[in-house]
Amino acid sequence: MKNGNGIPKPPAADATPAAGEKLGVAAQPGAGRAGVEEARRKLGLALSELNRRVIGREVENKLILTTVVAKENIAVIGPPGTAKSYTFDILAKLLSCSYRRYLMTRFTTDVEVIGPYDIPLFVREGVLVRKLSQLLEADIAYLDEAFKASSAVLNALLSALQERAIYDPITGQVIPVKTKVFIVTSNEVPREEELQALYDRFPVRVWVDYLHRSRGDETYKLALEARWLLDSNVQPVANWSDVETLNAFSRALLQSVFPALEKKSFIDIYADNVLSLIASLRAQGVIVSDRTIIEKLPKLVAARCAMDGVNVEVLYNAVIDILPHLGRDAEESKRIEKAMLEQMGEVKRLHDKLEEARTKYFSGALNEAKKLLEDLLTEDVEKFRNRPFIAKRASAILAEARALYEKIERHLSMIESEREGV
Predict the structure, then answer these.
(1) Beta bridge partners of 103
(2) I want to staple 42 with a disulfide (CB 3.0 to 4.6 A). Which of 140, 210, 238, 399 is the partner?
(3) Above 70 in pLDDT, residue 386?
(4) Shortest CA distance to 147 belongs to which of 115, 113, 191?
(5) How do 264-265 and 165-167 pair as beta strands?
(6) Which DSSP category does 4 fall into?
(7) CB 206 within 8 A of CB 325
(8) Contact between residue 319 and residue 274 where contact means Cβ atoms under 8 Å apart
């Protein structure tokens, strides 16, 4: 079926549950269906507002929020002046959560990060107790340039990052850490051997760069408008209890069974579609660790399902979107993404055509981009029906192409109106 412009409309979702229908979770865990839907709505608003204020980072912003819902640690790596700190400052305000930020240097001490000893108590009662710092009591703790800290500070942080506890060697205390999510930003990936243990505690890696390298001058205008024309007083649209609701729901999903899919469990679906992909990546020399496969990726995929809805399409696309960001550096991330696209065969061709159209669009060649998208939108995804993993990605690519096509048409219409008004 075609619209008035002769461009095929995107295909409707298949009637089968496996193609996009909700999977009929037997019992809605945690806050119940209404509570989950409300939390999902509010975090959706938070993401939309974050995208309005941090321009050109839509993919990165969604990954960051997914990581927060999963209560995982995240590293954001890129050159100075790429809105790393700004992004998290805005997000914390939107979520109305307790948030502490600390800039670390090689002179930072463990007392500054973990907290001081209670000297008055020691003088009065002879009991030496460490008081936990506000940094380790916040919902989100932001360790700015943590890789520059001393080995003493880094060693003290390792258990906090992994186990959410501090083992004080002086007092013998085991101090529970209340922080749910740790963030680190850095200008580059740490290469020193002594930093690898700390780096491993941040399994999700987001790579950012200057906007002009991939987005075009138009994005700068949008960024200027966001910075100077939007109200600088950011209003919260959600709170930490919404994060907790979706986190609880995502954890329950990991143990759920779906009647609509022959009573398959979430783990069955995950294993069916991920393990063969991982094996293919390893065969190409791209190593994905067991910890990533078994512990980290399932949590993140479940968190994305909690945010976007429980259906197979979301699960499939979450794997593709998230897995490259579990690579150790930007180069490995690109290798993972390239290997996945090659694994998907013809879908790579669709992906490449969409990326070519995007490049044309951002360079200002709107009519060339439009022609590429017209060709792309004639593709028939029905030929992928017997390969669900690939079919879902192909559908997602066509949906992105449709959105970009409509954006270009609006842009061209505005240009034509301006010409007629001259």
Answers:
(1) 144
(2) 238
(3) no
(4) 191
(5) unpaired
(6) T
(7) yes
(8) yes
What are the backbone dihedrals phi and psi of residue 158, each rounded to the nearest 5 degrees, phi first?
-55, -45
Half-sphere exposure of 325 (CA within 13 A, CB side): 29
Neighbours of 1 (CB within 10 A): 7
The two beta strands, 140-144 and 99-103, are: parallel
Beta strands 181-186 and 165-167, pairing class? unpaired
Burial of 234 (0-12, 13-18, 19+ CB in 10 A): middle
Backbone angles phi, psi at 338, to 5 degrees: -65, -45
Over residues 262-279, the pLDDT tens digits come to 678 899 888 877 887 788
CA distance 410 to 413: 5
Phi-psi region of 375 (alpha: psi -120 to 50; beta: other; left: phi over 0): alpha
* DSSP sequence for 236-268: P---HHHHHHHHHHHHHHTT-EEGGGTTEEHHH
Q: So where are the chain's domains?
A: 31-253, 344-421
Q: Which of 78-82, 206-210, 221-225, 341-345 has the lowest mean pLDDT?
A: 341-345
The predicted-structure confidence for 318-371, as pLDDT tens digits, reads as follows: 888 899 999 888 998 988 888 877 767 778 788 889 989 988 888 888 999 999
Statement: residue 28 has pLDDT above 60: no
34: left (phi over 0), alpha (psi -120 to 50) or beta: alpha
* Spatial separation of the C-alpha atoms in residues 81 and 79, rounded to whole Å: 6
Q: What is the CATH architecture of 31-253?
A: 3-Layer(aba) Sandwich (3.40)
pLDDT at 395: 82
Q: Assign 18 a pLDDT band (cuts: 50, 70, 90).
A: very low
d(CA 114, CA 116): 7
Mean pLDDT of the chain: 85
First CA to last CA distance, the chain? 38
DSSP for 165-204, written as a single string = EEE-TTT--EEE---SEEEEEESS---SGGGHHHHHT--E
Using the predicted structure, report yes or no on whether residue 157 has a pLDDT greater than 60: yes
CA count, 13 A, side-chain hemisphere, 322: 30
What sign does the dihedral 402-303-164-204 (CA atoms) show?
Answer: negative
Q: Residue 131: phi, psi to the nearest 5?
A: -95, 125
Q: Tell me, what amino acid is at 141?
A: A
* CA nearest to 98, candidates 179, 183, 176, 182: 179
Residue count of the chain: 422
